[in-house]
Structures are given as structure tokens and as C-alpha cells.
TrEMBL record:
<protein>
    <submittedName>
        <fullName>Cyclopropane-fatty-acyl-phospholipid synthase</fullName>
    </submittedName>
</protein>
<dbReference type="InterPro" id="IPR005174">
    <property type="entry name" value="KIB1-4_b-propeller"/>
</dbReference>
<dbReference type="InterPro" id="IPR036047">
    <property type="entry name" value="F-box-like_dom_sf"/>
</dbReference>
<dbReference type="Pfam" id="PF03478">
    <property type="entry name" value="Beta-prop_KIB1-4"/>
</dbReference>
<feature type="domain" description="KIB1-4 beta-propeller">
    <location>
        <begin position="71"/>
        <end position="324"/>
    </location>
</feature>
Length: 352
């Protein structure tokens, strides 16, 4: 072991004077966002080092946000809060790190990691459709089938890939949304919605469920290593009087968009060292090995949307669930717990 030379003035070295490369080595061993924040809070020198090194570090593990202002920094089960109360009452999430809040006729976005706020134009000033569009040209449309079950004609835009916006419909159609600029006003507007893949919903959807049960389906659109994935989540439910109650049995299927042949293709692995974090407001594929974790895992939530409850639950509380594609097993390895009534729980992905 090399001999350590004491400072010339005889005073012990300060922890604040650790070399920047050593600080980088320490931060690389801290995948949790909360741990990196604690490192930066030690002293101004460490805070400056963390800020300078952030672009070269692997992304921190996601956080789970709840609309009461509580956050969970994976893998910890202890709740935490960002300074201030600006994260209470959000109604959605966007782009992985922004929370959406309503305000009068419009809304604004808050990035709790950067402390940034962006106010969006009032909805009264946003053109949802061109003046010459047909009456059925709408952003969000819901219909009821003869048996009373609802479906959404097309869902919110979830991904931007190669400069294009894609949407996934409840009938599993993949749509591409082209946006252009109005030459007279300069405002952006949707100029075309085209079908890229015609969906082929699973006609054997009910076959996998036990007798005397019913099923519900949830779809997610995720970009992973340049590919578009549709994740089909099947929830096994039972009827209790007139109430649909979710059971603990669920199943996942992953399909990749073959844009060249306009079809969905079943895949049995996420490939390329990937795992998924699924949520109605925000989903993302991330590298598993950078966190010392196994690939082909799907982290998901009991994500019931506000005013759109599809089923009830036996238990009052819920948590993060993990589906392993290799053995089709579901587990709850993380001990964070919150109430089902806490709608709109969402994943947050800190930017470097």
C-alpha cells in the first residue's frame, strides 16, 4: 500500500477536498436518486462535483410519485418529499420528469428535479382541430359497446420516435400523428392521423382465465432501443354482486411493431439488457445491468385512472409489482405501500 503524504501544513485533509474522479466513483455506486441528493447536500464542493459529473453518470433509478406530494426513491420504501409543496395535486405526467397541474382554463408543468415550471397556453387558445376538419376529428373520444363496456377510440400520445408521434388505440391500432404549422397563424396543429398497424386483439382473451371470472385489458406503448413495443396486460377479475373486483392473477404479453410489414410481432424477451417501468401517465424501458438487476422484468402499478375505474380491489393498499417474463411470476420485492384511492401514481425518471 502506498504511503500517504500528509499536507505540508500538518492539518488533516478535509472531506470536501476529495478529488473529482473519486467523487465520480462514489456517485456511480449510488444508483438511487435519494442517495445522490444526499451526497450533493454534504457541502458546496460535493454539490458542485455532483452537478459537473451528472452528464457522465448512468441515470438514477426511477422515483414513484404520488399526488399527495410523496415520492419513493427506488429501491427504498421510506417516503420522501421535494422541498416545498409544489408537487401536491398533479393530474398527470409527461416526458418522464414533468408533472402536469391544472390551472384555470390551462395547465402548467413542474420539473421537481430541476425546480423548473412551464406554463402552457389556455385551452381556449389551443386549436384542437383544423377549421376544415370533420366533426369526429377529436383528441379523445370514448364510446360504449352494446354490452356497456367502454373503449377509447384512441389514447393520449405516448412516444416520439424518429421525429414522429405515435398513439395506441384500445383496439390495438397503431397510429402516427403528423403535426404541421399553420401558415397564417404559425400555430402547430395536427394535419394527419394515419394508421400504421391494424390491431388484431387477442380473440382468446378470456381463455386463459379461470371459470366464473372476467377479464380487463390494459395497453402500454413503450420505445425500447429504437423499437416500439405494445405491452398487453391482462387482469383477471371476478364479479361480487354488481362489482368487478380485480384478483391477483395477471398476465403480460409483449409485441413489437414491425413497421415494414405493418403488423405486431410477439416477442418473448425484451432483449438488449432491458427492463420496463409501466404506468398510465409514463412508461419507459431502461438498462437493467447498470443497476445490477436482471433483464426481462416489468415493473407495474395498479394504475387506475381518475374517474375511469374499471374494477375495485379486495385490499385497501397497493404497491409496486414486478412481472418476470422468464417464469411468468409476479412479485412485490419493494416494500413501499400506498392506498388504492391515491389515483395517478406515476414513475418519474430523473434527467442527468
Amino acid at each position: 500500500m502506498a504511503e500517504v503524504t500528509p499536507p505540508a501544513d500538518g492539518q488533516p485533509a478535509s472531506w470536501s477536498e476529495i478529488p473529482r474522479d473519486l467523487a465520480g466513483m462514489v456517485l456511480c455506486l449510488l444508483p438511487a436518486y435519494a442517495d445522490r441528493a444526499r451526497f450533493a447536500a454534504v457541502c458546496p464542493q460535493w454539490r458542485a462535483a455532483a452537478r459537473l459529473l451528472a452528464p457522465s453518470l448512468p441515470p438514477a433509478l426511477p422515483l414513484l410519485a404520488l399526488p399527495n406530494g410523496i415520492f419513493y426513491s427506488l429501491p427504498y420504501s421510506k417516503p420522501c418529499r421535494f422541498p416545498g409543496s409544489g408537487c401536491v395535486g398533479y393530474k398527470g405526467a409527461a416526458f418522464g420528469s414533468w408533472l402536469v397541474f391544472p390551472r384555470d382554463e390551462g395547465c402548467f408543468l413542474v420539473d421537481p428535479f430541476a425546480g423548473a415550471t412551464v406554463t402552457l397556453p389556455a385551452l381556449s387558445s389551443v386549436r384542437l382541430r383544423p377549421p376544415n376538419a370533420a366533426d369526429n376529428y377529436v383528441k379523445y373520444q370514448e364510446r360504449a359497446t352494446p354490452n356497456g363496456r367502454h373503449y377509447v377510440t384512441w389514447l393520449d400520445i405516448r412516444d416520439s420516435k424518429h421525429g414522429k408521434l405515435y398513439a395506441l388505440a384500445d383496439d390495438e391500432n397503431l397510429l402516427v400523428v403528423d403535426i404541421s404549422q399553420d401558415q397564417s397563424t404559425g400555430d402547430p396543429h395536427v394535419c394527419r392521423i394515419g394508421q400504421v398497424i391494424k390491431g388484431d386483439p387477442d380473440h382468446l382473451f378470456d381463455a386463459w382465465m379461470p371459470d366464473d371470472t372476467t377479464g380487463r385489458k390494459k395497453l402500454y406503448l413503450v420505445e425500447s432501443c429504437g423499437a416500439l413495443l405494445m405491452v398487453r396486460r391482462k387482469v383477471c377479475c371476478r364479479m361480487v354482486d354488481d362489482t368487478v373486483v380485480a384478483g391477483r392473477i395477471c398476465e403480460f404479453e409483449v409485441l413489437e411493431a414491425d413497421l415494414e410489414h405493418s403488423q405486431w410481432v410477439d416477442v418473448t424477451t425484451l432483449g438488449d439488457d432491458q427492463m420496463l417501468f409501466l404506468g398510465r401517465p409514463c412508461s419507459r424501458a431502461v438498462s437493467a445491468s447498470q443497476y445490477g438487476m436482471s433483464n426481462d422484468q416489468i415493473f407495474f402499478l395498479d394504475d387506475v385512472m381518475e374517474n375511469a375505474e374499471e374494477y375495485a380491489f379486495d385490499e385497501e393498499n397497493t404497491s409496486v409489482n414486478v412481472y418476470d417474463m422468464r417464469n411468468d411470476e409476479v412479485s412485490r420485492p419493494l416494500q413501499m405501500v400506498w392506498k388504492h384511492e391515491m389515483f395517478l401514481a406515476t414513475w418519474m425518471f430523473p434527467r442527468s
